[in-house]
Write a structure and sequence with these properties.
mainly alpha; single chain
Length: 185
């Protein structure tokens, strides 16, 4: 049973992250012809395209993909709690699904910034994935870079962003009901 839970958790999280990446790539208008962008679109199209037929975008935001991500996250919470013997009330499940969407989006931002920072130390030449990660993180890091003084080529904006994300997560852990419960899933 434990192996099944691990496998399901991985599959739900992987697909959920692809959906969030799709919305994020569209929001920052990342290079569509990049291999990472192509992978995200091809993996998510079979599920997203049917929803797009009747759910239009709004102000440049892919509402259909956000809805699919919300459904996948809520379905994950329901499936994992059911397999572990717990039952979540429907209203609470919908609320937890929304919290899960927000929390995992922040986690993905954290992971992309971490990978981008590690790649900047190791990979010297621009690669397609590094270019897309730069496009994804630049809207979050640019305001921090404007505030920080020039430190002679050392970019601490990622460290400041990590600190801000950690503080935001700690704040939400103490103020938003059930936020810390999502660590179980």
């Amino acid at each position: 049973m434990e192996a099944l839970l691990i496998l399901l958790n991985f599959l739900f999280d992987a697909f959920f992250m692809v959906l969030i990446l799709r919305v994020w790539l569209q929001a920052v208008r990342a290079d569509f012809y990049n291999p990472l962008s192509q992978f995200v679109v091809k993996v998510s199209n079979p599920v997203v395209v049917p929803f797009r037929r009747f759910i239009p975008g709004f102000a440049g935001v892919d509402v259909a993909t956000i809805l699919v991500a919300y459904i996948v996250g809520t379905l994950k919470l329901y499936t994992m709690s059911s397999l572990q013997g717990g039952i979540i009330e429907f209203g609470l499940l919908l609320y937890l699904g929304l919290l899960y969407l927000i929390k995992e989006s922040g986690y993905l931002l954290f992971m992309v910034m971490l990978i981008m920072a590690l790649m900047s130390w190791v990979v010297q030449n621009p690669t397609p994935i590094r270019l897309v990660f730069h496009q994804l993180t630049e809207p979050f890091l640019r305001p921090i870079r404007r505030i920080l003084p020039d430190l002679g080529g050392i970019d601490l904006s990622v460290v400041i962003a990590f600190l801000a994300l950690s503080m935001l997560n700690a704040f939400l852990n103490t103020t938003v009901p059930y936020w810390s419960v999502l660590r179980m899933f």
